[in-house]
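User: For a benchmark we're assembling, each entry needs the component sequences followed by a predicted structure for the full assembly. Here are entry 17's components. Please fill in the structure.
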Amino acid sequence: MFTIGKVRLKNQLILAPMAGITNLAFRKICHDLGAGLVCSEMISANAIAHGSKKTIELYLMTDRSENPVSFQLFGSDPKNIKIATEAITNTNCDIIDINMGCPVRKITSINSGAMLMRDQKNAQNVIKAVIDNTSKPVTVKIRSGWAKDKCLTYLKIGKIAEDLGCSAVTLHAKTAEQGYSGKADWSLIKKLKESLNIPVIGNGELWCPTEIKNMIDQTGCDGAMIGRAAMGDPDIFRRTEHYLKTGELLPEPDCKDKIDTILKYWDYTQKFGTASSGNIKLHVFQILKGFRGSKSLKAEIGQITDQKKLRKKLEQLKSD
Ligand SMILES: Cc1cc2nc3c(=O)[nH]c(=O)nc-3n(C[C@H](O)[C@H](O)[C@H](O)COP(=O)(O)O)c2cc1C
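Assistant: Structure for entry 17:
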């Protein structure tokens, strides 16, 4: 167990923020399966400040049964960040996270995401605009730097975050230029942990319980953030929690177990009104990855446009 500010997490395992994936229903599934903290997809401070109905109604939706939950903001204009922070502070989320790692052009071209790592003054302004306008713990999610260099950007930004009063820093141990490819350099997580007094969360290429434990052991970090592995396998939280506690590796879920999970996800999307059938298909495809016959099944499911037929197909697969 560890704490981020005043928020106590039941374990060290955190669902990464993922645009298009970590909506309320998916966060709830990961929470049910053992995640100690779940994170929203990145939310535009500009959109909140401009009163976007979709952003406010959909992205700021929480349910008490998913707590603790962190909402992630992106943006670079302190005025809009202030308005967005106040709006988020009025929700039931527990933590506000600042995105300083997104390498996508749409985000960096508005000086947000990983671009903040190239402009430390602006990074400072953004952090201050959040901290000064909320009573909730604030965290930042960074990359090792923009490009491979000797500037140790992650250590500088980590220190700025700590000095300004942030409650934790997450390091995705890749550069912005790497995007999602190449290796994550976990040794940087260790260096960041050694240089800060606030909790450090390690992220990057954590695909199974043994890798997660290795990363925690090698770096001494406080928490492990899991992204892509959870997309097709939210049960990774339950197995990893068990492995960290007992050293025993539980069997991986089979195709039927995974379909069961997707049906529960579907039920949550209906309960919360969060996702389209396109989004459900995306999760179905993730879950089917690696199973025998998944290619033809994917093609077949891809053709189904009717929600009832899709549900029937999944239920049939479960009982086959
Ligand atoms: C589809 C997708 C969407 C993502 N969206 C976000 C986001 O909104 N905010 C963010 O900070 N990181 C985002 N990320 C990055 C993840 O949070 C995480 O840092 C990255 O996937 C590395 O972790 P992994 O190797 O466990 O996947 C996204 C990643 C993916 C694959």
